[in-house]
Write a structure and sequence with these properties.
Shape: elongated
Helix content: 10-25%
Largest sheet: 6 strands, mixed
Structural class: alpha+beta
CATH topology of one domain: Thrombin, subunit H
Number of strands: 26
Distance between the termini: 34 Å
Number of helices: 4
CATH class of one domain: Mainly Beta
Length: 377
Amino acid sequence: MGFLTKKQLKAYDVLLLILAVVSLVYVYKHYYEYDLAVESRIAVESPWMVKGDGHGALYVVDTEKARILEVRDGAVEHIIHGGAPSGDTFYYAENICVTEAGHIYVQDTAWSGTGFSLDGESILKYDSKGRSQGVCYEQSYDGVYRDKHCIFGLDSRGDSLYFVYADEEGFSLNEMNTLDNQVSVLDTYKMEDAITLVQDFVIDTENLDVYVIDKRGILLRASRGEAGLQILHQIPESAPGEDSKTALYRGAIGRDGTVYITDIASERLLAFREAAGYEMETVLEGSQMWNVYCGGSEDGRELLYYVADGAISIADTMGNPVSMEVQYGKSAAYGMGKGIFDFLAVTAFVCCLLLGARLLALLLPPPTAIHRRFQPW
């Protein structure tokens, strides 16, 4: 280790500096792409939502760490972290949508510093590798008090991304062209206090009907080209002394027109089947069942993707469980990338230590000079 005490600037000092800078820059740019825990499996600490792309991939929103995990065959392929150090990024993923082209759209809600109101909302686009492609749509609430998100029902079909925007007077169905990010209003509907009464909107992307989930226990439908809203089902109020409670929350729609809605009061998943006249049916039970998504699988089956009892769960449309996970492994590609990241992180740390030692050696006088300075007369 004698090279550390050399009093002259050497070529290896320059090499150490270059290696440290390169390693630090790489670590800074890529640290948000990986889970920094040392465990062999990646845990989902606070699952909020899960959606499938119909080709075997799952996209899991972990709100505790502000990230989205792309999972395939039980192993994490990519991690999209919020709060990325550069470029556009999300902070609270309220909703996500995966298109047929493999792009991921994230609905971000920007809460104010007090946490009681929203400063704005936006929709961001990521490519299939989880790289940010920028903001596609923004809504600012400067000068307007909003304590709830106004964008709902993010869904796609072909080159179109659909969403509903709601306010005090009603709501509108909007279409975004994913090729140029141009947004157009397809229909508007009057509904007094819609932003207050409605918990969620579900869009049927085939015929562009909008299903309205009213927190008073009402399921309505806004049909394309029609001005009024049709009541499909209204849950009667509980009789005095009954313990039965219902709080409709988030919804999804199946291929056959069945509307699935989570009931966060009775901790269950409800189905309102068109063929059964939209009568209410309990499909699943489970605590903390916030969101539900209905989508296809690789074998062509239609499946329900949801979070219940703190686990990422999949079931068929009759409620029969398919899988339930709380943590995932790491794919080979992810493991290789994480290995490179870890190697360069250690390299940067060691280089910084060596550079610090060399800096001290260059600045401090040699030991012999210190000894002579304090030698007695």
